[in-house]
Amino acid sequence: MTGKRIRAALAAAAAVCALLFVMPMASASAAPTDTTPRAACTYPDWVAGKWYVAGDIVRYTDGKYYRAEHDNPGYDPTISTWYWDPYDCGSGGQNPAGFVVSEAQFNQMFPNRNSFYTYQGLTAALSAYPGFANTGSDTVKKQEAAAFLANVSHETGGLVYIVEQNQANYPHYCDWNQPYGCPAGQAAYYGRGPIQLSWNFNYKAAGDALGIDLLNNPYLVERDAAVSWKTALWYWNTQTGPGTMTPHNAMVNQRGFGETIRSINGSIECNGGNPGQVQSRIDSYQRFVQILGTTPGSNLGC
């Protein structure tokens, strides 16, 4: 099984290595950290003129909560209703019961998954990006969930593999040009998790965004299921990779599943780079949307 590491624009020219995974050793387990979804009504106050992205939740001056359905430069939620929707904070908002993928469907998608990749870990991670699979129509929500999980399935052999197997690659993922260096050790930033987080600068960026010190403790990504899922959601919702948009925006703006492949692996698979790998992702996506009871939409390839 070949998985692909996350590549920031900084690493676009880096040599591409074939990545394989292995299960983490039983002795590598650690107490879970930061796995509890945040409280329902702790979102920040809305600020006029501040840039918001789809999925952001704010408390308006009327005391009510609103979620950005589209990126906007701080429009008034009570006026610019195309950009904002009321958010029922009292019901807990994004929570396992509201996720468009049930545990039974998740198990159907991944019948042979490693026990590390728990459904509870995934749903605990959703609070980090409440717009994920929760933006637009029910069809769009299900399509985004299916697209994310299809790419994850491809990267991990059906949620079987967790970390990169070829240990010879491990020292390559340390960019000493970064001012913070590699405090966990030169060989500590190898690929981990559902969308193969790698490189010290990606661990730093993801950790900063999530409020978790992954630069100094990258091992959390292979030891804590919620943290592992959060890093995948971080990439999906905030990074364009070698593409032109985030995978989240590709799905909610109906640019098609193919654009999510481009954002994850670019020309390595797209534009004829590896049509077999593209088709493998498409096959998983089509199977998953069928499980969720919806349609795949258009523009499946890249």
Explain the overall architecture.
With 302 residues, the chain is mainly alpha-helical. It has two domains: 1-25 and 97-302, Lysozyme (Orthogonal Bundle); 38-93, Carbohydrate-binding module superfamily 5/12 (Seminal Fluid Protein  PDC-109 (Domain B)), CATH 2.10.10. The chain has nine helices and five strands. The chain has helices at 103-109, 119-125, 138-156, 200-210, 220-223, 225-238, 247-252, 257-265, 275-291, and strands at 21-22, 57-59, 65-68, 84-87, 163-164. The strands form two sheets. The chain has a three-stranded antiparallel sheet with strand order 2-3-4, with no helix packed on it. It has a two-stranded antiparallel sheet with strand order 1-5. The longest helix is centred in the middle third of the chain and has 19 residues, at 138-156.
Topology:
Elements: E1 21-22, E2 57-59, E3 65-68, E4 84-87, H1 103-109, H2 119-125, H3 138-156, E5 163-164, H4 200-210, H5 220-223, H6 225-238, H7 247-252, H8 257-265, H9 275-291
Antiparallel strand pairs: 1-5, 2-3, 3-4
InterPro entries: CBM5/12, Glyco_hydro_19, Glyco_hydro_19_cat, Lysozyme-like_dom_sf
Organism: Streptomyces lonegramiae
Pfam families: Glyco_hydro_19 (PF00182)
